[in-house]
Amino acid sequence: MLEVSGASGGYGPIQVIHDLSVSVDKAELVALVGSNGAGKTTLLRAISGLQPLTGGEIRLDGEPIGHLPAHLRVARGLAHVPEGRQVFGPLSVEDNLRLGAYLNRSDNVSRKRDRVFDLFPALAEKRRAAAGSLSGGQQQMLAIGRALMSSPRVLMLDEPSMGLAPNLVDTILDTVGQLARDGMAILLVEQNAVAALRIAARGYVIETGRITQADNSGALLRDERLRAAYLGE
Ligand SMILES: Nc1ncnc2c1ncn2[C@@H]1O[C@H](COP(=O)(O)OP(=O)(O)OP(=O)(O)O)[C@@H](O)[C@H]1O
Ligand SMILES: [Mg+2]
Hints:
This protein has helices spanning about 40-50, 70-75, 95-100, 110-120, 120-125, 135-150, 165-180, 195-200, 215-220, 225-230; strands at about 1-10, 15-25, 30-35, 55-60, 65, 80, 155-160, 185-190, 200-205, 210-215. It is an alpha/beta fold. It folds into 2 domains: about 1-75 and about 155-233, Rossmann fold (3-Layer(aba) Sandwich); about 85-150, no CATH class. The structure holds adenosine-5'-triphosphate (ATP) and magnesium ion. Adenosine-5'-triphosphate binds near residues 11, 34, 40, 42 and 83.
């Protein structure tokens, strides 16, 4: 579904990601784990078209999309929940969701919104509240909900567990797992390697802009070196 091969890029003359190759199938949840500054956000932003690559190729359903502007990648079925949530604070929950559907014809919007409220009942109760008044966990739910409003086939999430209490991390990651079981291809970026690998089928480890390990999640969770480096054991 999503295939990134040989992606390289960075900021001006500074190369941050080096020849990265990552793929995600339909109904597959893949984790990309790595420590602070490894290049995870840079890769997701490049896949979304928010910043350029200097080399490599991105395919969605076999079609190259690397030349398309970000909004056309969304229209092809690629959605991105950015790091730090970035909801529109003064706008209501419902209006934030509506903005996520800006590319869609209006007749589907309320059905999609109801689907988001089914997934996250806490949001339904707050539908008219300003997004900025929500708790961190609810804002993360809203950020995911907004991405779902574009009816993505591929969903990329950038550290959705960041700053959340453990029970909320579980709630959000359970829902992410459910979306994959329902058929979505999901690329989950996390510093929280244990939580991410527990729900993922496969994982990649990224260190200073390079993939250093790629395996099924069980094998990564058992790997001694990974445990020492990332799992705090
Ligand atoms: N706008 C920018 N300009 C210059 N360098 C940047 C910029 N954003 C990130 N970097 C650098 O690129 C490298 C990778 O950053 P990136 O944000 O992709 O890492 P990350 O894996 O997402 O880290 P974190 O887990 O902290 O979010 C870091 O060395 C960072 O300092
Ligand atoms: Mg990041």
